[in-house]
Design goal:
By secondary structure, the protein is α/β, with parallel strands linked by helices. It has helices at about 1-15, 20-40, 45-60, 65-75, 90-100, 115-120, 120-125, 135-145, 160-170, 180-195, 220-230, 250-260, 295-300, 315-320, 325, 340-350, 350-355, 355-360, 365-370, 375-390, 395-410, 410-415, 420-435, 450-460, and strands spanning about 80-85, 105-110, 130-135, 200, 205-210, 215-220, 230-240, 240-245, 270, 285-290. The longest helix is centred in the N-terminal third of the chain and has 21 residues, at about 20-40.
């Protein structure tokens, strides 16, 4: 537990004072903010759309078993196969079994945070299967040997100069290459992979219960090609991705694109309802959907925190969060970062080990303000804190401090004793280290409010 926490503190300290990193991050997020402000103009009643989206997701989360069975039934009617995976290990094992059964040696992947959660690329490589990311941002971080920095924008921490230097080192491209030239190079490199790949692996933005379909939204077309060319398609999705009906997409797709990238709608939006049917000329011969739990039912057990399962992974809360904007994505040491990560990661990976993510928050409420499905994120973070304390996941020093604070703050005589001078001396000798070397300790006034009040009353 302490190792994870200490690592978080150490990396936060380093990143928060890296001025160049902050410049890149703030520049990229500022462009996002401009785009989102423009994208929101398409809504006459944005708050109404948010409330409707929240209500639908609430209904789904409260009836998750019903909708999942409905999805499975409808998907399998069209020749698809559903695999239920309780843990990350089960999901990875099932994926590898499918690929080995089809003698797949090369896989193309469309952008998917859930495969990052599974660390799927590493596990495929261990089994002699080449796995290639086809989203430009994901491809960049894969080439760099890194993980995605952000839920929506994997390479948000890199400038165009950083990327040009990377491609110069790895592929011999001119160091002064423009973004357009790099994009063209990657497009050319990936095209042959799409055609020759044995299998395609994608995530799913939504699972549609009434049609038994998966919905994928993207801007580059790589998702469509990952599905269209290979003979096998494996989609991996968390069980919370369900929506009741295909008619709900006209609500969720624009909300996701507006809050994710500032677009009115993303460029490519696909609904995939199973393997290639009779008379169809493209698409996979076999399609599998892996439904992953991996701690999601642990979140579901919590009456209030389960609301976080409504998240549509737009990344808006990360971009608005003052903590994320200062310490970045890698410091969280988790797949899901920012405010949504602070809510769900402690339950996915263990509250005892990851409670510090919920405490690393100013509770400013910006995340709740920008969430397109009205998740009360800052309140859920507070609930995580409360649960951690109730379960005794605090240090002996914290417990002693709380004990002393309770005794003093609930005793009038102790509050009045000694005056400001003595109180300042006590605070300085006991709290200076805990308060941090960059913050000044608060100074207590010479006279308390009670003393001032009594003096005022005495004059009357």
């Amino acid at each position: 537990m302490q190792d994870v926490y200490k690592k978080f503190l150490k990396e936060s300290e380093k990143v928060a004072f890296d001025q160049e990193h902050r410049r890149k991050l703030n520049f990229n997020i500022s462009r996002y903010e401009q785009a989102v402000a423009n994208g929101k103009k398409q809504y006459a009643k944005l708050e109404l759309a948010r409330r409707r989206a929240a209500a639908i997701k609430h209904k789904v989360v409260e009836n998750l078993d019903k909708y999942l069975v409905e999805f499975e039934t409808n998907f399998e009617k069209k020749g698809g196969k559903v695999i239920w995976a309780q843990t990350a290990e089960e999901a990875v094992d099932e994926v590898i079994k499918i690929l080995q059964r089809h003698e797949s040696r090369m896989v193309v992947k469309s952008k998917s945070m859930i495969t990052e959660e599974l660390e799927l690329n590493k596990m495929l490589e261990k089994n002699g299967i080449e796995s290639l990311e086809t989203d430009l941002g994901e491809y960049i971080v894969q080439v760099a040997g890194e993980k995605p920095y952000h839920i929506v924008t994997p390479a948000m921490h890199k400038s165009k100069e950083d990327i040009a230097k990377l491609f110069h080192e790895k592929f011999g491209q001119p160091e002064e290459s423009t973004p357009e030239e790099i994009t063209a190079f990657v497009r050319e490199k990936l095209r042959e992979k799409f055609v020759s790949a044995d299998a395609g692996i994608t995530g799913a933005n939504f699972l549609i219960a009434d049609t038994g379909s998966i919905a994928i939204t993207e801007n580059e077309g790589n998702g469509m090609m990952s599905v269209s060319f290979p003979e096998v398609h494996i989609a991996i999705a968390g069980i919370e991705k369900i929506i009741p009906s295909v008619s709900d997409l006209d609500l969720y797709w624009p909300l996701l694109s507006t809050h994710g990238t500032g677009q009115h709608i993303t460029v490519y939006n696909s609904i995939i309802s199973g393997p290639r049917q009779t008379g169809e000329i493209d698409g996979p011969k076999e399609m599998y959907v892996v439904l992953l739990d991996n701690g999601r039912t642990e979140i579901l057990k919590h009456r209030q925190q389960r609301r976080a399962l409504s998240c549509i992974r737009c990344g808006a809360c990360l971009n608005g969060c003052p903590i994320y904007r200062n310490i970045g994505g890698y410091t969280y040491n988790a797949t899901y970062t920012g405010p949504i990560g602070a809510v769900i990661t402690p339950h996915l990976k263990g509250l005892k080990e990851y409670k510090h993510l919920s405490f690393a928050c100013t509770i400013c409420g910006k995340c709740t303000e920008v969430c397109p499905v009205n998740i009360n994120l800052h309140e859920l973070i507070l609930l995580n804190r409360s649960e951690a304390v109730s379960l005794g996941y605090t240090t002996s020093g914290e417990k002693k401090l709380q004990y002393v604070a309770e005794k003093v703050l609930t005793n009038r005589w102790m509050m009045d004793f000694g005056g400001g001078t003595l109180k300042n001396l006590v605070i300085k000798s006991t709290m200076k280290k805990a308060w941090g070397k960059r913050r000044k300790l608060p100074v207590i006034a010479p006279k308390s409010f009670k003393q001032l009040w009594m003096e005022k009353r005495g004059k009357k």
